[in-house]
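Comment on both lines for my students:
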Amino acid sequence: MVKSNYLVAPLAWAVVYFLFGFTSHELNGAFIASGYIWLPAGITVGALLLTPTARWFPLLVLLVAAQVLLGWVEQRDLLRMMLFSLDEIGVAAIAVWLVRRAPFPMEGLFFVRGLLMVGVGASVVSGVFGAAWFLLTQDQPFWQTLRIWALSDLVGILIMTPVLAGWSQFRATRSGGIARTEFLLGLASFVAMVVTAYLSFDSDIDRLVFDVAFSTTYLPLFFIALVTLLWGGRGGSLSVVVLSLMAFVYNSLGRGPFVELVQLHSSNALLELQVYLAVASLLSLLISALKTTREQLHEDVARWKTEVELSLSASHQLAYTLDAQKLAFTWSGDVEGLLGCPATQLRTLEQVLKHISPLDQARLRQRWLDGDDGDERADMPLRLQTGNALVLDASRSLLDAQDRLVMVAGVWRFADAPAAAEIRSA
């Protein structure tokens, strides 16, 4: 049972590799040295990133077997397919292993950097070996083969790996997640991306209405950015995959602005299209990384605030800051439990002083507003209006460059009965 489970994931990756390899060959059409589309490059990198290194051996073996099987089905030279798979998969494994050893986490902007390092490194190195092989065996031009090979691998990695990495960590939840408004706006943006992709690649409406053709290809990029902002990295990567499949299919059928662009100058429609899709993928990746970094920062701040609140409540303390210009307070801790009223009723200096014994109000006001620049001063005992509770105020002041009071920060410690008796006797 353990061995069968050990092979389930590698076998699934191999099946996906075969299917996308077959799709890539169909979209490429006839080619001699290197195809312009190679989506399995992204499958390989995604599988290696998501699989523990200790379990790479069966994964690599099955990926190579999938590539050889693909060559056999399409009646290609099996020796060349074997060398091709060892080049592509082996170089990708080395690149992923090197990036995994880097001392930074594979998330946020670090994920984008790591993915670019793997994508550029693996595509260029494998392209050099492949171009050299075809130069020696079939006298194919080296630089042209290298350019096509490297770009097809890089675009395949940028399109497929983010969606695999994002959706592999998806967990369905009964509550939480995307807010209803954001979900509906993201859905509308996704539909708009599909509609504008159709408008750009398989419609004459843009030419008839706007008298433009190529410019409408920018519209799907705008809506991909919106989907990424509203749905996060998973939605953005999914949008890039859908746009890529639509663009590749229309391009293979001889439709779209990139096919028309080729008629104006000597170029290749698939190469033009791949640069376009690479930009779309990088746009989604960068927006997702920045969004994730910002959300992580907010989560860290919220967690830190919760920990501080719990610590203050457990130790019967309140922390406060006083804005000296507005004479406004901000409280942390169980204000209502210790003072008997919510923090919303203790926003101003006058509101706070009303809860202090009249004998201590003037001393406390002077202590807060005297403008001592953080000098050491003893804790000040004071009594509350209700319950005659004893509180120790420990506070410091902050002055600006002109020696004007800017802020007062402090802590109120509520003394227990023995400590209060000792303080009163002193």
User: Anything to note?
Assistant: The chain has a mean pLDDT of 80. The beta strands are 317-323, 328-332, 380-383, 390-399, 405-414.
